[in-house]
Amino acid sequence: MVITNTISPVLKIGLQFLGIWPDVSYSAVHWFGFMSTLIIVQYFQYAYIFQHLKISEFSNLIDALTVTVDYSLTFFKLIGLWLHRRVFHQILADMDSDWRECNDIDQHLYLMTIKANISYFFSNLMYSITMIFTVLYLLGDYMINFIFVNKDYNVTSRQLPIKLYLPFETEQSPVFELLVVLIFIHVMLHVSILTILNGLILTLVLHVSGQIDIMCYEFENISKNALLHKYTVSLFHMQIKRHNKIILFAENIEKLFSFIALMQVICNTLVICFLGFFFIISLYNESDVFVLVKTVLAYLGIMCEPFVICLAGEHLSFKSKLIADATYESLWYELPSRQNKIIIFMIMRSQRRLAITAGKMMDVSFETFTNIMKASISYISVLNAMY
């Protein structure tokens, strides 16, 4: 298969379903349709939370808050993506332009193909793992109830896949079965969209990473042909244009994901805190092993979300430093003084580190991920002391 874009087919289909992809018919209908279902589910989720806002049901409340906050995170992400859809369309146009330019040079095409293959692999891997974790999490309650019934526990209520407070009777057939199927499909769809949005940022960073590799490769060629002064001037001009495109592309990524990253940091900190505390409660209450496994799976799945965006931010910052290194390692001292000045300006401009920020307040990196985990553990300790 000939690769012509860094965005994998899985991501493209998901973005077309949301109406974010350019030239999709009735894109607003797609987006508002899915957002309407999110709002409806969120209403019944928060209704359940307010209905069970009691100390005696604290563990049940924490379990409900975990899924509810994750749904809220998806809602805010989609709002941010829709508001910046023109920026996203510009990013896609720049990506197409980069791939057209790569077709003229085999080495450039090879470098970009490597990044595209990595993007496809991680997108499919994240999607597969997330789907498996979600299915196991949703089936966890039914497995727990099945075990309890077999052990002669007095369990008569029929639970929905997620905690919802519906204003009608839900335990009678066939209403219950229909609700289970609809909610199961919606949760799987919600998790699919969430995974697609997480994979998108990693894909865009890998694309700009490929462009940086091309730039470093060209500087190496300039070093090998340093004596051919009449050709190096045009090569420097091409490098300056490519560097400007890389900076603009990274700034567009920052515009697109700054608000999303902020919501990711806040919501994932809360969700990881809730899950950690629920796990501790389950240990104290000597809950069944299925409860613990379900909690651990949810914890790992949620923890992957901030890790992916922090990985993307860290990788972008790391690759941006390579431009200054490649520029300095070129044979600039064998070039005429006029071209040396160009080198100096490029090194100075490369000192500005490319990064993704969370609401313009902090850079998203591995340090941010560590801070999220530290904050979550601190909140777990406070809740444990209050419980």
Provide structural commentary.
There is one protein chain. This protein is mainly alpha-helical and 387 residues long. The chain is 79% helix and 0% strand. Helix 8 runs antiparallel to helix 9. The longest helix has 56 residues. It is elongated and about 80 Å long. 36% of the residues are buried. It is found in: Cell membrane. Pfam families: 7tm_6.
First CA to last CA: what distance?
57 Å
Query: Mean of the pLDDT scores?
Result: 81
The total of beta strands comes to 0
**How can the largest sheet be summarized?**
none
Instruction: Determine the fraction of residues in helical runs and give it as a percent range.
Output: over 70%
Write down the secondary-structure element order. Answer: HHHHHHHHHH
Unreliable segments (pLDDT under 50, ≥5 consecutive)? none
Strand content: under 5%
* Overall 3D form: elongated
**Rounded radius of gyration (Å):** 25 Å
Given the helix and strand composition, which structural class is it?
A: mainly alpha
What's the tally of helices? 10
Itemize the secondary structure elements and their pairings.
Layout: H1 9-18, H2 27-51, H3 58-83, H4 85-102, H5 106-150, H6 175-224, H7 229-284, H8 289-329, H9 337-350, H10 366-386
InterPro entries: 7tm6_olfct_rcpt
GO biological process, one term: signal transduction
Main location: membrane
